[in-house]
Write a structure and sequence with these properties.
Blueprint lengths: L8 E7 L6 H6 L5 E8 L6 H6 L6 E5 L5 H15 L4 E4 L11 H10 L4 E5 L4 H5 L3 H18 L12 E4 H6 L11 H11 L4 E5 L13 H26 L4 H30 L5 H27 L7
Parallel strand pairs: 1-2, 1-4, 2-3, 5-7
Antiparallel strand pairs: 4-6, 5-6
Length: about 325
């Protein structure tokens, strides 16, 4: 790994209800980090003040006038890091779940120039995985698959992980105003990173679970994430396969989707008519219904296969 001291590394910490933990988190951030940017997201516990008590001259605290959500807080921290001319920016939570000891591993690919963005992966280490509460494990697995489909980063094992690092060059290419400011922030980042063909890599970082309080609402996730994931998926497909490029995946989708809808619609219509009249449909009618579905399904599978093979790869 190239010399980390040749780069100006910043850590951005969104702070909301973490006043009891953030001081200890700051104390464990390694000396290689030049700037620690804490964003007090209108915290009722004054987490920003608690960060200042850590007495670390690397710490600067931003105060949001209103609660902007974790994504909004991180984006404010990103903007500050760019103002300070930082070259690598790490996002770390203030509740102690993200171990600063792994920070060097997280930023290594950016220092080497082999990736544009890196994420922690809690699923490499089986022992650490067993320590994860079952409900979190199940929920993360289901959500991870949905995020893979939406973002196009099929190579990531833990795409919802919030322990991340990004190069300043990549951050400048993103339209930060288009990034979701709530708990969809990490997924929104991946969707927008894929659109600009950013190389994203996984880093083995076990999670820690203690007595921290999570402000994440499972109900909000279940209600809001599906529509956001679908919207992000459609946006990525539009830009990647119809605006910035046009390839065989585009052709398969253009032909396959209408054909699939035609086959399903015709099949439902004929099924209803058969139920109402009691007349069995002819083999020809059945084939006319089944063939478009079969062919279109194969086309869409090929489009997915192309999408999987089109994941932005690590540069040599």
């Amino acid at each position: 790994m190239r010399n980390v001291h040749a780069h100006k590394v910043a850590v951005v910490i969104p702070a909301y209800r973490v006043s009891h933990y953030i001081g200890d988190v700051i104390k464990t951030i390694p000396a290689e980090v030049s700037e620690i940017i804490v964003v007090d997201d209108c915290c009722p516990e004054n987490s920003g003040k608690a960060a200042q008590l850590a007495a670390d001259n690397r710490v600067s605290v931003l105060y949001n006038a209103k609660n902007m959500g974790v994504g909004g807080a991180v984006i404010e921290g990103y903007k500050k890091a760019l103002e300070l001319n930082c070259t690598v920016i790490v996002k770390m939570d203030g509740d102690g779940q993200m171990n600063p000891a792994y920070l060097k591993d997280l930023i290594a690919s950016m220092i080497e120039g082999s990736a544009d963005y890196s994420k922690g992966n809690r699923f490499f280490n089986f022992k650490a995985l067993k320590a994860m509460p079952f409900i979190r494990l199940f929920g993360n697995s289901a959500l991870s698959f949905a995020v893979k489909l939406s973002s196009g980063y099929w190579n990531l094992a833990d795409p919802t992980n919030g322990y991340t690092a990004i190069s300043s060059e990549t951050l400048k290419k993103l339209d930060l105003e288009k990034i979701s400011v709530g708990y969809f922030f990490e997924s929104s980042m991946l969707i927008n990173l894929n659109i600009i063909n950013a190389v994203v890599t996984d880093v083995n970082i076990p999670a820690k679970y203690g007595d921290e309080r999570s402000s994440l609402s499972i109900a909000k996730v279940l209600l809001s994430f599906p529509s956001k994931l679908m919207s992000g998926f459609l946006k990525r497909i539009l830009f990647k396969y119809f605006i910035y490029d046009f390839n065989m995946a585009s052709v398969y989708m253009l032909l396959g989707i209408p054909m699939f809808l035609f086959g399903v619609s015709l099949g439902l219509y004929e099924w209803v008519q058969s139920s109402l009249t009691g007349l069995i449909r002819s083999p020809g009618t059945i084939m006319l219904t089944a063939l478009p579905i079969i062919v279109s399904f194969q086309m869409l599978l090929q489009a997915i296969n192309i999408d999987i093979s089109s994941v932005p790869r690590r540069r040599c």
